[in-house]
Structure formats: structure tokens, C-alpha cells
């Protein structure tokens, strides 16, 4: 049933969804994942620089915590965030359960270890003499950090992409904290591409699930292309 | 989705929660700290569905009602049809979260939804007896059917009784896919097994999917297995499946045991003062109205009526408001 040949004509012949429905779930997917990854990048870069170049007791522990976090199961993150934002949880009064904000929170938790871990590897590989040179030329600590980031930019771009990939392809936690909600007008509130795919698959609509899957893959490709482009655009001319 | 795990872990966490609620005095402080963190993280939107109109009584317009419900009402498409006129009339949004009966009630217990529409009377009664739900109404019914592959290896087709059909499946050791997710359908299935006495000796033929009705039907289809399904979801997916109905429910003169009644319950505002009780009651009023009755009656899939409304009746029906077998103790 899965591999019926009729599947392939269906891909080109007809688009089985209302366009505004698909557009709204693409929007929610992108909005949630991009905001989450932006926030986790802002958080992760300073952490990676700090852990990468400062010696402090417990550094080994911090590094292994980050590495453990990279493999954190998303349903567990979803549950923990759910209990945080649930009406009985510490953030209950903010009414965040079943909102995009709660989804951003869980994706932030998921993406941050990935972005931090890969960035850490990237900045650690910047040679000490580059940093020494920047310092010798009279650079402040901020300048040295900037030079390091610039040197490690490909690695950092990879880190951001890995974090984005983790966020946008994830289904467990956004389903739990978001609730997969669509208004009767067909506009997604908390439904993402992944949860929409899961919904189609659970109803045996494998063809339509595949179409949404193709949309997701294209979306990830486009984002990758854009980031790589940005990464190489201003490269090498400082 | 692994609802069974969700529930297991959730009940595990419930214990942790009791500890947390002991510290409820500190909650305002924690929230103040937390809100700063979230404002930074999330841009601080969606603050309060009920902070509109505090000054001059409840203004319903613009508010959001969170409805947790079962997969069957949602996936059949009924709720989209039913909710649209309600939203138009009151200018509100209904956020429908399809979870399965057990999870839907658990979400409501935590105060995360305002109203529940579910189909497992025993679980609803537990919910009401726990003080979490008020103003229960009967809403509608359809029935369950036993479905399986056309070749019917356990020869259960035409069994007049559900129990004998289930016994046949057990005796022949044919694969049976259980929802295994504490949903309304799962609850009914376990009731039937309980009545056959097979419940304690499930063999390898008995598999638990831990997933929604659609996924279970797909699994049963691919394995040539048997399962218990609500008629609505089965009909809406019939064209995708090679399964057929082997034991009919009461709608087609099958055994009464396979009746599948749906109820709607508001979350008790005395337990959770953050729930949108006004809007929940407006919604219950609407779905039990003549207008909604007509929408439910006229809703079809592949030409067949999926749900039969039973909210409106000239005869008094006191049983709908209280747990089954409840007696006044004076």
C-alpha cells in the first residue's frame, strides 16, 4: 500500500490540500524553529566561547553535559516543558500550554545543546596563534572573540544548521506542548509540518503524508542553501 | 503517538506535582521570576485568554476555548463542521486538541483545557467524582464494530455476541491490535475482554499499539489482524483499508455492549480558577442545541451518518448529570 505506483502521479497531478492550510503550517514550522534556533544561537555562542577558551573546574563535566543534551529524547523534553507551562506548573499563570511560545521553549531546549556542542568543537579548533595575533594587534577580548567566530564561521554555520535540523524535524515535543491545533478556518495555530505528516499517516493517508514530507525536505534544503550562502558571502575579507 | 507512555510518565510526574503544589505559596514568586525568563524567550504574547473584560463582567468575544477531545470526533471531521457556527456566533476561537479520552481528561485535570468531549463513561464518572468536571451532558452516540481481514481466520463473522467473537480470536490465536492508549475505545475493548475472562491470559497474538484509532486500523490492515474500532473512524477510512466489519454494533442491530456514547463535561472552575468556564458552558449549550443536533445528524462520510445526537429529549434524563449508578444519600 505504501509503495503503490499511484503515489507518484498523485505527487504531480493534484495537490490535495487547501493552499492556505499548507502555507499556515509551513509558517508555523518556520516561525517556531527559526525563533528557537536564533535564541539558542544567541545563547550558545557565548557559552561555546567561554567553555572553549576558559579553564575552570568542572569543564569536563560541562562538556559532557552538552554532549549528552545533544541526544536528549524530544518527547521527554516535551513532557518537561508541558509540566512547566501547564496550569499547575511554575509558569501556569502565563497560559502557555498549547501555544507556539511553548513549542519554541521545547525546541530551544532541544536545539541548544546541538548548537553549543558543534560550535564548541568549531571554536576549539581555531588555532591559538590566530587569537594571539588578534590580541597582539591590540584587540580587546571582544575583538578576539569576534576573530574567533569569524575563523570558525563554517563550523558555526554547521552548528546552526544542525540545530535547525533538529528543531524543524522534531515531532514528539511540539505535539505534546503544542497540541497540533488548527482552527476550523483551516489556519494552523500550532500544527507544524511534522505533526501534520503524523496526522495524515495515522489516518492511513500515506500519499498526502508523503507530499507534506516532500515540502518539509524542500524547506530544509532552502534554509540550508540560504545559510551556506550567508556563511560564504562575506567570507575571507577582513 | 505513544499515549500509553505519556500516561505512565504523566502519572509518575503527578507524584512530583504533589510536591510542587505543596510549594504553591511560593508560586507567585516563581512565576514572577519565570515570566521574566519567558518574556525574554517568547516575546511575551498570549497572556491570558481571560484577561479581557475583567472590568465589566465576562466578555466572551475574542476569547479562546480549549477543547480536549478524542481522536474519533476530530479525525472524522465532525468538529470542524460543528465548531464553525459557534465561533462565528460568539466571535471566539475553539482550540481543539485531539488526544484520546484518557489523555483528554488528564489534560483537563491539570486545568489545561476548559471542556472535554469524550466517550468512556467510566472515565468521565471518575473525572466528575474527583471534582474536576461539572455539568455533564449526553451528547451523541455511535457504536463500535469488530473489524478484521476478509478471510476471517478466527471465523467470527456473524457472531451475535461480542464476547464470543473475542473468545474466538483468543482461541485461534489470531493477531489482535489493541489501542493500548487508555482511550475510550481501549476502555471499551478491555471491558469486553473482562467479560470474556480472557483478559488475564493474553498471548503473543495480543499486541498493543499505543496509538490513535487511525494508526491502529492501518496496523491491523497491514497485519491482517482484528481490532475494535469506532464506526465513525472506520467509515471515514474505509476506502483506505481492506478490513471489513465482522461484528456489527447496535446501530446495525448488533449487541448493545458495543454502544459508544459521547459526553461533554465542563472543567470545574472551583478546582481550576483559570479555566474559561463561561465559554465552556456556552459551548455545551451550543452543542446540545437544536442547531447542533441538526449538524450532527446531517454529518455523513461516504453517504453514511456517523453520529446520532441524543442531547435533546422530551423525557427527563437525569442519569446524564451524575455518575452512573449514583444514588442520593440522605
UniProtKB/TrEMBL annotation, chain A:
GO terms for biological process: transmembrane transport. Keywords: Membrane, Transmembrane, Transmembrane helix, Transport. It is a multi-pass membrane protein. SUPFAM superfamilies: MetI-like. GO terms for cellular component: plasma membrane. The keyword Protein biosynthesis does not apply. Residues 26-227 form the ABC transmembrane type-1 domain. The chain crosses the membrane at residues 25-53, 65-84, 104-123, 209-228. Its main location: membrane. The keyword Cytoplasm does not apply. It is found in: Cell membrane; Membrane. Belongs to the binding-protein-dependent transport system permease family. This is ABC-type tungstate transport system, periplasmic component. It comes from Natronobacterium gregoryi (strain ATCC 43098 / DSM 3393 / CCM 3738 / CIP 104747 / IAM 13177 / JCM 8860 / NBRC 102187 / NCIMB 2189 / SP2). The lineage of its organism: Archaea, Methanobacteriati, Methanobacteriota, Stenosarchaea group, Halobacteria.
